[in-house]
Amino acid sequence: AIQMTQSPSxxxxxxxxxxxxxxxxxxxxxxxxxxxxxxxxxAPKLLIYAASSLQSGVPSRFSGSGSGTDFTLTISSLxxxxxxxxxxxxxxxxxxxxxxxxxxxxx
Amino acid sequence: xxxLVESGGNLVQPGGSLRLxxxxxxxxxxxxxxxxVRQGPGKGLVWVSRISSDGTSTSYADxxxxxxxxxxxxxxxxxxxxxxxxxxEDTAIYYCTTRGGGSSRFDPWGQGTVVTVSS
Lengths: 107, 119
Fold this sequence. Notes:
The structure holds 2 protein chains of 2 kinds. Chain A is 0% helix and 50% strand. Chain A has no helices and 11 strands. In chain A, the strands form 2 sheets. In chain A, strands 2, 4, 5, 6, 9, 10 and 11 form a 7-stranded mixed β-sheet that branches. The relative contact order of chain A is 0.34. The model of chain A has no long low-confidence stretch (mean pLDDT 98). In chain A, a hairpin with a 6-residue loop joins strand 4 and strand 5. Helices cover 0% and strands 51% of the residues of chain B. Chain B has no helices and 11 strands.
């Protein structure tokens, strides 16, 4: 199975900060990649699909980039409601695999 | 409103069985592949299984292969996950989700149903 390695595992930032989370795949996954946000007690929510496409209704401060093995999620100006755990996902091959998650806290 | 609602989670003893259901509304369910994803207590997300739109193709994680069976009834807009020979490590919240057009585009997700395997 393809391994997805996220970094960092957690971070703390202030409102208005630019935040970057990275995910590395153990092999080339083209752009079969997405980012998900999960708040405590809630289901995951799709933010980005196909590596860089913003899901409808998701604020434009979220953006995704990358292709191949290295991918990035950027929050351009962190907001209080962005406090959550973020997961990356590949479905280039089965089984689809998630990263271990990045917990984002607001200072 | 586009919605998925899971049910069927419960407390069950090791070796027991449960059947989870995922009911869809607000969209053309039989056009979509459906996936189950689980999350153990305090853990990350793990893909479990999927079924094609017409139900003829299925896939499973190695950890559940031979114990879990996914099926669907498009007339009822429902996907099922039959879980047999349950183990403590199957304890988790189970979510269903659909994969739309676009890579890694899993949306919407249900609210989840809790399965606890314990004696």
